[in-house]
């Protein structure tokens, strides 16, 4: 119910997963059952779980170019999708390295313009618990909830929400979820999830985490993390560090030396490194990080 309100949907179905990968798998499995002949479209910056799920489900796929900021290239998407009659689209709501957000509305408009039957799934593993708590004017710019043409959303419970046990949630439009519900006589219940039997303790911990922080608490955390990200961008630009980009609480920049990467345990991909500003971080930590970067600039 918490997530249904957060993502603006009244008729919904969902369950607590073991993480973002299972949530993505469920969304893609449902999409395949609804559109068995459809090709899956996703960008170069899409999380590796999507490629794995495509392989597991035996689906056809097409990779779309990404823009410099990691967001999907809408022109390339249109060029590649327009000849198809059906399409399954994975929208990134915060890519792993750059925090890029694929805009659901132009994706949906492209599909409608070419009369393509479609299903749009949102991988919102990290930003699903960030964007809804931004100021209203910023939310409108990055809208990804069920007020758009989205059919399903997967969110991680152990990333920004901070559950100590890995978990997540997937939520879908209820009338679509019925496609996967099969009555099993000997358990007198419907088979509705991917994993079947699941522990009851993890959802309790996730629920407790949400209840103890609350909506107001998450808003304060997001505001604090945004402040940290803004500060880091300012400091990086001050010393002239190359390729600095910001998307909400994610700051990406040119890859530093291996010494700094190991010391600060930075996530890297090719020439890019990033810092994701989370509630447990402090400006003091960022100051110390910047001091190390300054030494490299000399």
Spell out the blueprint of helices and strands.
Layout: H1 2-6, E1 12-17, H2 20-34, E2 39-43, H3 48-57, E3 60-64, H4 74-81, E4 86-92, H5 104-113, E5 117-123, H6 136-141, E6 152-156, E7 168-173, H7 174-177, E8 182-184, E9 189-191, H8 201-238, E10 245-247, E11 250-254, H9 258-264, E12 267-269, E13 272-276, H10 283-297
Parallel strand pairs: 2-3, 2-4, 4-5, 5-6
Antiparallel strand pairs: 1-7, 6-7, 8-9, 10-11, 11-13, 12-13
Describe the fold and architecture.
The termini are far apart. The chain is an alpha/beta fold and 298 residues long. It has helices spanning 2-6, 20-34, 48-57, 74-81, 104-113, 136-141, 174-177, 201-238, 258-264, 283-297; strands at 12-17, 39-43, 60-64, 86-92, 117-123, 152-156, 168-173, 182-184, 189-191, 245-247, 250-254, 267-269, 272-276. It is 40% helix and 21% strand. It contains 10 helices and 13 strands. It has a 7-stranded mixed beta sheet, with helices on both faces. A 4-stranded antiparallel beta sheet has the order 10-11-13-12, with helices on one face. Helix 2 (20-34) packs across helix 3 and helix 4 (74-81) runs parallel beside helix 5 (104-113). It has 2 domains: 2-208, Aspartate Aminotransferase, domain 2; 215-297, Aspartate Aminotransferase, domain 1 (Alpha-Beta Complex).
Task: Name a few traits of the molecule.
four-stranded antiparallel beta sheet; 10 helices; Aspartate Aminotransferase, domain 2; Aspartate Aminotransferase, domain 1; seven-stranded mixed beta sheet; alpha/beta; 40% helix; 298 residues
